[in-house]
C-alpha cells in the first residue's frame, strides 16, 4: 500500500530530492557530534569526515530509492549525478558558512562592537584584544593541532605534500597573473 502511494512519476523526483537533504542533515549532525567528542581534530578534518559520511548516506539512499522505484540504469545515472552534485553544493555552502563564522576576524570584531553597544569600543582595547602576535600564535597552534603543519627547530613545515603543492600552485598563479615576485626575494 505504501509503495502504490509513491509510484507516481510526480512523487519520485521529490522523494529522490530528499536524499541530498537527509545527507546534509547527517553531515551537520555528525559534525556536531565529532566536534563535541573529539576536540583534538582540526575543524577542516572534522568537516571533511562529516561531509564524506553525508555523501555516503546520500548515495546509499539514492541507490535504495532507485531500486524501490525501478528506475532504469540510464535514468538512474542522470538522477544520481544530479542529486550528488546537489548534495556537494549544499555541503560546500555549509562548509563555507562554518569556516566564515570560525575564522573571520571581521565577524569577531563585529561581535566585540555589539557587546559594547551603545558605548563605542576604543581602538586601544580592540588592538589589545586582537594583537597580531597572538593571532599568528593561535593560527599556528590551530594548524599544528589539525596536523597540517609541524614545528622543527623553530621553523614550520607542511605535513602533507598536497598542501605544499597547493601553496606552490598559488605562488605560481600569483606571479603569472599579478606579475608579482615572491615577497621573500626568491
Describe this structure in words.
It is a single chain. Helices cover 75% and strands 4% of the residues. The longest helix is centred in the middle third of the chain and has 31 residues, at 73-103. It has a two-stranded antiparallel sheet with strand order 1-2. It contains 8 helices and 2 strands, in the order H-H-H-H-H-H-H-E-E-H. It has helices at residues 2-5, 11-37, 43-69, 73-103, 105-116, 123-129, 132-145, 161-178; strands spanning 149-152, 155-158. The protein is mostly helical and 186 residues long. Helix 2 (11-37) packs antiparallel against helix 3 (43-69) and helix 2 runs parallel beside helix 4 (73-103). A hairpin with a 2-residue loop joins strand 1 (149-152) and strand 2. The protein has a domain at 2-103. The model has no long low-confidence stretch (mean pLDDT 79).
Range of strand content: under 5%
User: What is the succession of H and E elements?
Assistant: HHHHHHHEEH
The side-by-side strand order for the widest beta sheet comes to 1-2
Overall 3D form:
extended
- Computed Rg: 23 Å
Keywords:
mainly alpha; 75% helix; 2 strands; single chain; two-stranded antiparallel sheet; 186 residues
What is shown here, in short?
This protein is mostly helical and 186 residues long. It has helices at 2-5, 11-37, 43-69, 73-103, 105-116, 123-129, 132-145, 161-178, and strands at residues 149-152, 155-158. A two-stranded antiparallel sheet has the order 1-2.
Amino acid at each position: 500500500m505504501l509503495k502504490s502511494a509513491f509510484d507516481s512519476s510526480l512523487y519520485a523526483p521529490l522523494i529522490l530530492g530528499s536524499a541530498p537533504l537527509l545527507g546534509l542533515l547527517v553531515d551537520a549532525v555528525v559534525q556536531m557530534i565529532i566536534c563535541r567528542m573529539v576536540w583534538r581534530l582540526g575543524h577542516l578534518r572534522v568537516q571533511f569526515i562529516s561531509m564524506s559520511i553525508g555523501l555516503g548516506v546520500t548515495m546509499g539512499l539514492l541507490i535504495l530509492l532507485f531500486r524501490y522505484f525501478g528506475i532504469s540504469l540510464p535514468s538512474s545515472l542522470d538522477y544520481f549525478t544530479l542529486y550528488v552534485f546537489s548534495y556537494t553544493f549544499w555541503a560546500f555552502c555549509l562548509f563555507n558558512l562554518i569556516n566564515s563564522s570560525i575564522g573571520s576576524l571581521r565577524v569577531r570584531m563585529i561581535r566585540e562592537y555589539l557587546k559594547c553597544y551603545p558605548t563605542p569600543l576604543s581602538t586601544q582595547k580592540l588592538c589589545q584584544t586582537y594583537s597580531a602576535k597572538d593571532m599568528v600564535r593561535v593560527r599556528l597552534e590551530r594548524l599544528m593541532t589539525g596536523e597540517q603543519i609541524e614545528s622543527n627547530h623553530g621553523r614550520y613545515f607542511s605535513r602533507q605534500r598536497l598542501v605544499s603543492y597547493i601553496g606552490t600552485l598559488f605562488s605560481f598563479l600569483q606571479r603569472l597573473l599579478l606579475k608579482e615576485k615572491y615577497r621573500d626575494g626568491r
